[in-house]
Amino acid sequence: MTADFPVTHHLLQAMPQTKHSITSATVHTLVASNQFGTYFGVNQKVFDEVWTNLTHANGNSVAYISMEIGADPDVYNPVKQRLIDLERTSSMDKRLKGFIQKLFQGPEKIPTYSGGLGVLAGDTLKSFADCKIPVVAVSLLYRQGYFCQIVDSKIGQICQTVKWQPEATHGLYLLHDPQKPEEPLQIEVPFYNENNKMTVIRAQVWMKMEINQTLDFFIPELLLDFSLPETPWPLSNAAGQLYNSESSMVKALQRRMLGAGIIPALRQLGFTAHTFHLNEQHGVIAVLQLIAEELQEIIGHADLCRATDQQVLKASDKVARQTIYTIHTPVKAGHDRFEKSLYAGISHKSCQRILELLARDEDNPHSYNFTTMAMTVNRSANSVSRMHRDVTRKQFPQFAPKISAITNGVHHLTWISDARAEVFNLFPPLRNWQHDPGVFGNLGSMAHDPRFRSYLSEAWKKDTAILFNYINTMLLHHREQKLETWIDPPNFFSSLIDRNTRMDPKVFTVGFARRFSTYKRADLIFDNLDTLCDIVVSNNWPINFIFAGKAHPADEPGKSVIKLILDYQQELHQKSKGLANLIFIPNYDMKIAKMMVAGVHAWLNSPKRPLEASGTSGMKAAMNGVPNISIMDGWWAEGYHHGQTGWKFGLEGPIEEANLSESPETLLYREDSASFYQILPTILKDFYQSDISSAFLDKAMANLSLNISIFNTHRMAAEYLEKYKLNLPELQAQEMRHFSSLYHSNL
């Protein structure tokens, strides 16, 4: 490494090694450019092929629309992986050095996601890239991100604004105007007031490149940035932060900016997608815009208010043939509804004319229901698990015939730990697992191979040690923080920890991490501390509970659950005579998630059934062989496999409308916590009275062989591909049929 390129050597040593190496001469080939900018990570030929396919007149591609996209570079970064062995030389030009420096020294967070929906979007796009599916994604760029979580034991969650630098972030590019290369590319989006007076709002267009593992394909993610100096305050305020919910107007403006910006952005860049995939209803205004254009063709003039109902429905039917819709939640708060009077202040009367017909809210005739519109205008409406399909059909009986299930997955290359990956690389039956997660179905007799079991057990211990090193360092930092700031440590254990008293990785450890919402019942298992502690003390079975997650800043009940978790810590420790400890990790993100799902001994999920549409954190644990302890809801109803992969608890039964209530008196704390206390002794006995290489490794093997091949986004992408109806080269189509055959969600 030469002195003129200041990347610290210890940084490189800390990164996992890869069998791919790349020379200094070769790195120059990873630069590509077009009329909109210059990019790093793929060669010019690859870039041109992807761009040509996405801009081809045949429209054989998909526009994937999501309010949030989670893809932090510190969790998965194929370009960085390939450059680990690079010998940097002074022959690099200034531009190339800038790309490399940004890659190794720039920000490693892109805080444009809040949780599961965004992380799922990121995982989906990674698999689209791996499988070389022609897709362009569209979302918003939020200058303030979501929020940074500080946790105080006396106060609970404290929300702090996130400050980040998109300009300094690797893989993220501000596109330029081809006519004025020194200026950013901008799109124009019309907004209207209640008098139909138009104001044109402009947005810059950023592009994140989601590059595949082999650096020979990428998915462009267009991020619309409305935070410009000239943007009027109400809009710039709404554009700044993901899910800013300080008012209904702010929420409506965010949806309006996303939906209304999609078509202009695609057309400005020449993208020609004929299929639009709505990842939730947030971007449904794009569909409304397409309907307006079709309607104008039908009636032959611009005054859409004069269109008949039949003409609106005819235009809607045509646009529906281009639209795929995925609904992610049965929870009412997840469906966008806006007062008609409010929406009249930000939309044209012709827009309101279409909404009157397609976005009716039967429960509230004074509101537009965007979920109803998304359900109406599509050729395929998809739930995210089989149980969610059944719930959604009950919620929307008028659409039941076209609602099908495509069960969620996760990107196995992102979520399988480095230690587990090293083990998988050693065994021939798992050859090519990075490309084909279906090979885990070949485990067969390997599940009983002492060498494989031993290696996997050691990898598990290594990942647990990584997690506990992080936790113990965090606890010491929190204790020191109390002396330096006004913040009270969020963990009672911070008052106990010292060089001789640390959290012990050999203790049975349960992980729980997700958004804190009341229906997810994070505090369920602590409903009766006396019963829980009696199980632990009477058998001398120590146990750790590791919790993490954020509550939406406006969700006061969700924040109160975090405070309850903090309040339980000291009482749990004292009643259990120090055998049970509850730790809360603040500021949950993808990096913390990856440590947790690989490092714990079991993963907990305790929602009120059937309000968990899918859930993906448990899938990430299963990718590492970690068994789940879960309510039979969402994906776990499909991943339980009669107890081979983990444990179930809680009430089961038919899905009724009454079960969908989120009111506190219907959350079944007493019944479902009692069920948990019934199975906990069996789980702890399996851990402590038999070697982990037997009871728990049996469930780990079952997860590898049964669940990895099902709950991955390659399979999920293949099932969506059947809905997209794209024309792919035969070999690629054959491979996607193979991925689709791994599991059939809609049985």
> What is the tally of beta strands?
24
**Coarse morphology:** globular
- Name the structural class: alpha/beta
> How big a fraction of the residues is strand?
15-25%
SS summary, helix count: 26
Name the average pLDDT: 92
Contiguous low-pLDDT stretches (5 residues minimum) are 1-21
| Helical residue percent band | 25-40%
Biggest beta-sheet profile: 10 strands, mixed
Distance N terminus to C terminus?
Answer: 56 Å
- Gyration radius, to the nearest Å? 26 Å
Account of the 3D structure:
The chain has 26 helices and 24 strands. The strands form 6 sheets. Strands 3, 4, 7, 10, 11, 12, 13, 14, 17 and 18 form a 10-stranded mixed sheet that branches. A hairpin with a 6-residue loop joins strand 11 and strand 12. The protein starts with 8 loop residues before the first helix and ends in a 6-residue tail after the last helix. The model is unreliable at 1-21 (pLDDT under 50).
Summarize the structure.
With 747 residues, the chain is of the alpha/beta class.
